[in-house]
Structures are given as C-alpha cells and as structure tokens.
Hints:
The complex is a heterotetramer, with two copies of chain A and two copies of chain C. By secondary structure, chain A is of the alpha+beta class. Chain A has three helices and five strands; from the N terminus they run βαβααβββ. Chain A has one domain (2-75): Ubiquitin-like (UB roll) (Roll). Chain A has helices spanning 7-13, 27-37, 39-44, and strands at 2-5, 17-19, 52-55, 58-60, 71-75. In chain A, strands 2-1-5-3-4 form a five-stranded mixed sheet. In chain A, strand 3 (52-55) and strand 4 form a beta hairpin. The N and C termini of chain A lie far apart (30 Å). Chain C has four helices and eight strands, in the order E-H-E-E-H-E-E-E-H-E-E-H.
Amino acid sequence: xxxxxxxxxxxxxxxxxxxxxxxxxxxxxxxxxxxxxxxxxxxxxxxxxxxxxxxxxxxxxxxxxxxxxxxxxxxxxxxxx
Amino acid sequence: xxxxxxxxxxxxxxxxxxxxxxxxxxxxxxxxxxxxxxxxxxxxxxxxxxxxxxxxxxxxxxxxxxxxxxxxxxxxxxxxx
Amino acid sequence: xxxxxxxxxxxxxxxxxxxxxxxxxxxxxxxxxxxxxxxxxxxxxxxxxxxxxxxxxxxxxxxxxxxxxxxxxxxxxxxxxxxxxxxxxxxxxxxxxxxxxxxxxxxxxxxxxxxxxxxxxxxxxxxxxxxxxxxxxxxxxxxxxxx
Amino acid sequence: xxxxxxxxxxxxxxxxxxxxxxxxxxxxxxxxxxxxxxxxxxxxxxxxxxxxxxxxxxxxxxxxxxxxxxxxxxxxxxxxxxxxxxxxxxxxxxxxxxxxxxxxxxxxxxxxxxxxxxxxxxxxxxxxxxxxxxxxxxxxxxxxxxx
Lengths: 81, 81, 147, 147
C-alpha cells in the first residue's frame, strides 16, 4: 500500500510517500512495523496522541483495519482555516 | 417641540412632523393631549404597546419626562436589517 | 469604524475587499449582507425603507461602539440603505475584523440582532398593487436576550 | 455548492459579489475570510500551507454537505489556498446563503470550526530564519462540541 506523511511527520521521516509491503491487520500494527525500521520512524511515531491517521483519505483511529486499504496517511492534528 | 411620526403612524396621522405647543410633563401626557385632538390621532395612539417612542433621538419609555425635550418621535417597532 | 446610511446602492465586493485589505494583525473578517427577499407567496414588486435621519446614524454608531467594547475587534463597518429597493437588491451589510474568528462572528451577529430592532428603519412591502408595513417579529426581539 | 482548493490568490470581493448576486429567495449572506496574521511577537515572514490533495477536497465537500443537511441553506462556497503566503494575504473564505440570518451565521461558524480541525491542512510559520509548524489548539478541538 501507499503510506503518506505530512507536515512534521514528513520532515521527520524524510519523505512524503513510500510504497510499503505489509500484512499488518490494523493501523496500529503498521505503526509497529514502521517503528521497528529505523530511528527516524521511531521518532516520528513516538507519541501516537500527537498523530492523526487517514485510511483511503478518511480520518480514522489507530485501531482501524487495513483490509483492502490502498493508502494510509499519517500527520499531526490539522490546522486549516 | 417637534413631534415626528414614522411608518404607519405617519400614514395614520397624515403628516411626518408637526410643531406642538405643550406643557405635557411626560410622553404619556403628550400622547393624551394628541389623542384628544382628532380621530386620526386617537387611531394612531390606540394601542401604545404597538408603538415606540424616542425623545431627542434616543429610544425611551412612555413614562419619560419631556423637560427640555426638543424632539419627540412616535413609530412602530423597528424592522431594519 | 465606518457607519453609512444612504439611498444609493453599495458594492459588496468593493466594500469587502477594502475592509479586508492590509489587515496584517487581524486574522478574521466576517461580513453579513441583507438582500431583499421575494418569498414565493408574496410576489414582491418592491420594498420601501423609511428611516429617521439623524437618529439612524446615532443608533448605528451606538450599536457599533457597544460591539467594540464587548469584543476584541480591529474594525467595524455598517452600511444600510433606505428608499425603494427591488427583490435581489442588497439592503445592508455589516463587517467585523478581529484577531480571532469567534469575536468576528459574535460581534457581527450582535450588530445584526441590535440593528434589526433598535435602529430606526421600517420596511414596507409593495406586492401586486397592495402594500403593507412589515411587522416586527417576536423572535427578533427575543434575539436580544442572547447578549 | 462550490469547493475550491488552489495555490493562486482569490478575489474576496469578486467572490462575494458573485455569491450574493441574484439571490431573490435568500435574505442573508455571510462570509468569513481568514487572513495571514503577523503577531507583533512573531515577526512573521511567510506562512506555508501544506495539504493532502484529494482528501482535502473530499473533506471540505463532506463538511459543506453536512452544513447543508443541518441548516436551511441556499448555497455554500469554500475556497482554501495552499503554498507560501505572506502576512496580510487571504488564506481562505467560506460563504453561506440562507433565507434567515441565524442559519447563515451558524452554518458559516460550523464550516469554520470543522474546517479548522477536520480538513487536512497544516501551517508552517517562517520568522527571521526560524520556522515551525503551527500547533493545533485545544480550543479548536473543543469548538466542535458545540455542534
């Protein structure tokens, strides 16, 4: 699936988007896999309460299933307007 | 003093403004004098709850004193905006 | 603060642009515009707005000053027309500028609620040969209890 | 209903005039405009707005549709810019048209409250060589409980 990063999550991980092959059942499982990769991922995902997630462009929770998901995005709380 | 009428009060009395010589102590006293003049005044002032009054261009009540007042205006509730 | 009472039309876009221009310290601008409405049932030909010259400007200034006292505002604009208007014509506008959006919104609502029942304007509707004064609504009077 | 996400500036006045034009059945038009603010303390050089193409438009459409479901509205407009902006630049606007003023005001406030924390935009401030992401405010999240 495509994994997207925005704002300081993007800056901390160092890229806006990557292709990830995963069998993760939920967003939380995917986060665990990413954290295990490298320090910059561990740093970006250190505090999940500071993060928001969208699956296929819909805001959701970290317990959301990834079954059939094509795109997951991680970002800080939004500051539009 | 000058007495002004607006909206349907003006239409009912038949003029927008007139000079009134009066010793009336309050707005209510002035209304009594006007009512006694002619049927069109009695009709315009039949229901005070349907009227509003301003003394010297300030909204006030019918018990307001007229001491020193230069201008009294009668009109229906306002419908601006 | 600018208070305008006039018979002539005003240009909402030009007023909004001028009001919002160069406000580096104000993050929020709210405008409200009132438009002559032709209800399907009414078949309105025209609306005539009467006002009380002198008192109108004083009342609007007082309401705008009160808004500036109650909210943190950078600026306030009120434009209100009088005379004969047609359906679709703009009757009036208010604009507020504030550092924060809640202040701009609340002050604009306050201005509208007070302007509706405390500024000396009266509307008369002309529809198909008949005409009648618009009655004040209880809900407009009740709206003032919010503030 | 019109939802626009663009890098280019927009003309508040032209948009407001076009939105208000010919609304014979809508008595009330409210606009909100967000402006890049230079706080005295911040000495802001520029603000950069990042967004999530695709999701942004979907989220704004969902919020606007929700507003139309909850209030009696004739029309809704949302314009939001992204990219690099300077103090005084217009960031975004919403406009609502309704038969009654209360609906137009409430729907515009609802749109702003949801857009603030539910549309995927992120602001970064550049001031005197330093830069930092604007943190979401608790009060913006709390504002959603009103609705």
